[in-house]
Write a structure and sequence with these properties.
four-stranded mixed beta sheet, 321 residues, binds magnesium ion, Phosphoribosyl-aminoimidazole Synthetase, Chain A, domain 2, 60s Ribosomal Protein L30, Chain: A, alpha+beta, binds adenosine-5'-diphosphate
Length: 321
């Protein structure tokens, strides 16, 4: 028997995400009612993933669910916001209960881990497309933004860059790196199951002068910060955090500079706050490394072992400037 839209929503999406006292009315009415605490700003973001474009048609349903929510959580991280509520717009070519079971399970798991409640959505028939709209909270005036980087600020990134790109090469059977099964699992997880740096974003409130999450590649995303802040930057490419197996390859720096999908944070901090920012992230066991400085001359300068790298030849540069 084919489920009606109502029973589909009831069965898969009406419960099981985080319980929050600020949800006055969730799934099931014409709209959700949510309580925004006094002194907080509501932070909202939306991202859509389309089958065949953002993920292959045969991708694992739980991976699709994880990734769609994760990219939204990553936007909250970049704003220094605590994610609270999500809405899910699901366009399905058919009602496939096994698919829905795995998809909703993947979504519940990540939502629970990050304390997010699914409070509503929309379900329609059509080519497989998933939109998540996420809302979070930040004390008024404390959100991190792309603008705000000042000359002299240090530039940091969290985690390791280029991992998701290696995962994609593996998934597509075109990876030339010499890696074992454990590493293979690691890189595929980095592609399919990114862990957005929400706690790091919250910890950087009041310290970072600007922040962005790295979804399109470091050069492209740092480029947005530079543009919005009206500054330039110099990067010491040797400092880029990259997997050892990648660093052994010729022009290893291409991957961490241009590859997207890592969902790490890039942030700037005035030198006087740098030690404190590093310490807060260390307490969270979130790796971070200083990769350069903001300067007054517009544009981006890259040096590798004292030699300048021509940014023009790097893919991803077109996003910048
Ligand atoms: P309406 O016709 O008023 O838009 P719907 O039938 O679209 O109502 O939705 C009924 C309820 O189910 C609403 O509360 C809506 O937010 C929720 N809902 C619909 N689809 C989803 C979904 N995929 N995930 C979570 N909640 C959903
Ligand atoms: Mg509706």
């Amino acid at each position: 028997m084919v489920l009606s839209e109502f029973s589909l929503i009831q069965r898969y999406f009406s419960q099981g995400t985080a319980q929050r006292a600020d949800v006055r009315l969730g799934v099931g009415d014409d709209a959700a009612l949510l309580l925004v605490p006094d002194g907080c700003e509501l932070v909202m973001s939306l991202d859509t993933l389309v089958s065949g474009i953002h993920f292959p048609d045969d991708a694992a349903p739980a991976d699709i669910a994880h990734k769609t929510l994760a990219v939204n959580l990553s936007d909250m991280a970049a704003m220094g916001a605590e994610p609270a509520w999500m809405m899910l717009a699901l366009t399905l070519p058919e009602v496939n209960e096994a698919w829905l079971e795995q998809f909703s399970q993947g979504m519940r798991q990540l939502a629970n881990e990050y304390g997010v409640t699914l409070v509503g959505g929309d379900t329609t028939r059509g080519p497989l497309t998933i939109s998540v709209q996420i809302s979070g909270l930040v004390p008024a005036g404390q959100a991190l933004q792309r603008r705000g980087a000042q000359p002299g600020d240090r530039i940091y990134v969290t985690g390791q860059l280029g991992d998701a790109a290696v995962g994609l090469q593996l998934a597509q059977g075109r990876c030339q790196l010499d890696i074992d099964d454990v590493q293979r699992d690691y890189f595929l997880r980095r592609l399919h199951r990114p862990r957005p740096q929400v706690a790091a974003g919250v910890a950087l409130r009041g310290l970072a002068s600007a922040a962005i999450d790295i979804s399109d590649g470091l050069i492209a995303d740092l480029g947005h910060v530079l543009e919005m802040s009206g500054v330039g930057a110099s990067l010491d490419v040797d400092q880029l955090p990259v997997a050892a197996v990648v660093r052994k390859t010729p022009e290893w720096w291409r991957l961490p500079l241009t590859a997207g999908d890592d969902y790490e944070l890039c942030f700037t901090v005035t030198p006087g706050f740098a030690a404190q920012a590093e310490q807060r992230l260390r307490q969270l066991a979130c790796p971070c490394v200083c990769i350069g400085t903001i300067d007054t001359g517009l544009g981006l300068r890259l040096t590798c072992q004292g030699r300048e790298i021509d940014t023009q030849q790097l893919q991803g540069y077109r996003h910048f400037g």
